[in-house]
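2024-03-11 09:14:02 INFO receiving multi-entity request
2024-03-11 09:14:02 INFO entity count = two
2024-03-11 09:14:03 INFO echoing inputs for audit
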Amino acid sequence: MPSVVSLFVTCIVDQLFPKVGMAMADVLGRIGYDIDFPEAQTCCGQPAFNSGYRDEARNVAEHFLRVFRESEYIIVPSGSCTSMITHHFRELLPDNAEVGRIEAKTWEFSRFLLEVAKVEDLGARMACIATYHDSCHALRELKIKSGPRRLLSHVQGLDLREMDTAEECCGFGGTFSVKFAEVSGAMARGKIDSIKKTGASVVVSIDSSCLMQLQGALHRAQLPIRTMHLAEVLAAR
Amino acid sequence: MEETRTIPGALSNERLQLAIYASTKRLMDHRSGAITPELLGDYQELRTQANALKKHTIDNLDYYLEMVEERVTAHGGKVVFCETGVEVSDFILKLAKERGARLIVKSKSMTTEEIDLNERLEDHGLQAVETDLGEYIIQLIGDTPFHIVAPALHLTRYEVADVFQEKLGVEKETVPEKQTMIARAVLREKFLAADIGITGANFVVANSGAVVVVENEGNARLSSSAPRIHIAIAGIEKLIPRAQDLGVFLKLLGRSATGQPLTSYTSFLSGPRRGDEIDGPEEFYLVLLDNGRTKLLENPDRRQSLYCIRCGACLNHCPVYRKIGGHNYPWVYSGPIGAIITPQFHGVSKDPWLPFASSLCGACAEVCPVKIDIPKLLLDLRADVTKDKEQKGKSGSERLAFRMFAWMMRRPKAYAMAGRIGALFAPQGSPWISRVPWYMNLAPIRAWLSQRDLPPPPPKSFRRMWKER
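2024-03-11 09:21:47 INFO inference complete, emitting structure
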């Protein structure tokens, strides 16, 4: 078992949802890890990559490789950013040997808990009805489906209810959310209809970007439903 | 029907939204019910095989094209290679003139939609009647296919009732079965009177020279057998090497499209009537169309776009298609497959927005029976767009923004500073914000706020909280 893990909190968590990063550090600390936060970290480069700016994305990816070169385990509170690192860096940097090493040591948070730390019950307590949103890159690129649900099943007081469109996209899609704002908004509202049907008061996911989209639309619709990152739920006492 | 042709029009049309949602949901449910491990245990293995077979065929297309020409000729048919749509219509017009043909019946074919065949023929006084029910309905109102498999998916039975009443002069009839009988009565006369039948092809089997057509209405079978002349029109990518490969593709096609293990009719059409046969056409032509396909062959990474068997599953599962519908794509091929092939056929300059009209959710690739990596191709095409000379001038501010992004993300101190400055000027307080001060009223923020609220920046970034903990 490793003793030190490095956090890559992602730019969106760093700048907009710092509590998610703190919760992740808290959960990892509780199960005995020392936490390392390489301060030179910024972003994985996905915004540029998904917008077609490969040279710009490559520059950011190279920076990432330098920052995390010495890390043994890199833990990421996002399926999408993890997938950028483990599935797309190699397209940007096909000849860079460091990419393979980074891929092998980068872990999405929930998968790290289950497959490396091998814990399912984090001793969390939260009384609520919750529903889980499968974020697309976690589901389809990383094949993460049952893991987060297993972790949630151990949260005392939490009643997990599946929505009928758990696997449907929330409509965020990075710059898609502003380039095709009306379509993106319509997708979010469709998702919200199915969240409402579950009676949940909390929507949980492992990607803060999806949750920003959903919370933004929930708030606009003045619905008393809040979104929480899985790390925040697992840190709840 | 014009409201279907703008994105806001489609989104705000509740009737249309319901029609798309209900139809695609039904197709999705049927598909997932047909590929369960109990019913089709080797589904994933079949996808892998289908992908490998298509790859092999496309990589060796010249070889198989020669083979199919030889086999079709041996059966007494004729293969006509056409580079463009104009060549196809010229061929048909010349043949019709020589044979004195006036009426053509057509079964459903996206390839002929792609080259506007009906319009070209009609311009020269030749009538081509669509005989697939959905195609017939949209032909009556001069519409274009809304979906690769279900061309009239956007119309409810009540609208179809209006169309039949107006165009055929019949009593208003809203029961789908009875509507079918109305169309059947009209079309039966056309089948009997037609001189030429045109079909598409789902597969063209190289080693037997057979054209394989799958359908549920029997109209393709009639189109190919009742008239004296049968012309099958297929894109060159429709080839498969051997008849036994159909064991893979037929298992996947019906299930992916409509959830059917097999469609009601699967026709193997190979050549004209032989001496001892009692039915079948007297003449058989297989038109193999390029129309830009060889251009896609040039790039080995992009060739997989030609593996498509036109099942429509990617459309049904695409959350964007399900909102904007088929008429907001620039070409006859809509949905995710349209978004990757249209820019490759027409060049990325023509509709540069198209590869960006996706949240990259990957649902399309997950259901594609031949495993086309659609999200990867969308990403590659996006990179093409940003490199395209014509676009470079237009997207100056975005280009600059991403240059600055890359510059900043390599400089942690500048990044942290930018975050602090941003947080200082952003509105604070209320849980989520629905408007921003004038100096933050930039186009992307406006676009975001047009649909949903924004989180205000927290008092401290993670890096500060971590430092001060």
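2024-03-11 09:21:48 INFO post-check: Residues 29 and 259 of chain B are 8 Å apart (CA to CA).
2024-03-11 09:21:48 INFO post-check: The beta strands of chain B are 78-82, 103-106, 127-130, 196-199, 203-205, 211-215, 229-235, 239-240, 265-269, 283-289.
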